[in-house]
Amino acid sequence: MARRPLGALLVAPHLLAPRPPGVKTTDIERLVQQLDGKSGESYDARAELIHIGSAATPAILDALPSREGFGQLTAIEVFEEVADPRCGPALVTLLDSDNPTVRQWAATALAGLEIEDAVEPLCCAYRACLERQTPPDESEPVAIRWALTDLGARSPVVPSLTTRLQAGTGPDSPGWPSAHFAEIIDDLADHSQLILYSQFWRVDAGHTYGVSGTGLDWLLDWTAPWEHLVEEARTWSLLEATEAPVADNIFVAPTWIDRTDLHPER
Predict the structure, then answer these.
(1) What local confidence, expressed as pLDDT, does residue 2 receive?
(2) Torsions phi, psi of 207, nearest 5?
(3) Pfam families of this UniProt entry (predicted)?
């Protein structure tokens, strides 16, 4: 699917999405107001707005700045489900929200909607994370890096051995065979890649399920030199590998960063 530039989205919304029969503008506005309501009310409004589809987008966009954080998060869910790219500029604005979860969800939605002009705002949002000294393994910077990768603006370093170990698992694999976890850890660390954490998945009858890991958790001193951070993460990850679940249908998906992710070019 072609990525969508923001400039191509600035067209009259009412020309793109006629209201479904029987749905009044006042009905849509009422539902939008309920996005900030109690969880049940908000969930019901979300479901109805998704059912209405892109015809509800203009009303949601108009009200978005006045919604509380919960309402904005629910609106983002509607945008993603409806897949209406006209919300791109509003999502970019939300990257400057005071709410870190709103910023995180906005970044993820921009990537999901393939808004190519969001790359520079996402880069700015990532630099803001670094300036706030947000640890790179927290949800917001992880989401922004994922979005930049998905939009083609970031290329993770994947060493050759790590690439080969995944090659036979198929394009829909949720990661690498867990039996090779220790090899992957060493390969990444040997190439100066810093493992932040790892997730485990079980594939059963074509379905993927999350698997509880070792419960091992660690904190890094992000003021330390990069080489020290890489080796400390290697040590902790290898310890995790000794306790990790292993089976033919168990996969591991490490999340790692490169030195450039802590010092991106301006």
Answers:
(1) 44
(2) -110, 150
(3) HEAT_2 (PF13646)
Q: Phi and psi (nearest 5°) for 60?
A: -65, -45
Tell me which residue has tokens 């790179």. 136
Q: With a cut of 50, which residues of the chain have pLDDT below it?
A: 1-16, 266
**246: which DSSP letter?**
-
Residue type, 262: L
17 Cβ contact partners less than 8 Å away, ≥ 6 residues apart: 53, 54, 55, 57, 84
CATH class of segment(s) 160-261: alpha beta
Sign of CA dihedral 167, 170, 175, 177: negative
| Residues contacting 105, CB < 8 A, separation 6+ | 73, 76, 77, 94, 143
Q: 143, 107 in Cβ contact below 8 A?
A: yes
DSSP designation for 209: E
What is the CATH topology of the domain spanning 6-150?
Leucine-rich Repeat Variant (1.25.10)
Residue whose pair of structure tokens reads 């791109």 in the numeric block? 88
Residues 202 and 246: their CA atoms lie apart, in Å, by 10
* Global confidence as pTM: 0.85
- Yes or no: say if 82 and 111 are a contact pair by the CB < 8 Å rule: no
**pLDDT at position 171, please?**
65
> What residues does each domain of the chain span?
6-150, 160-261
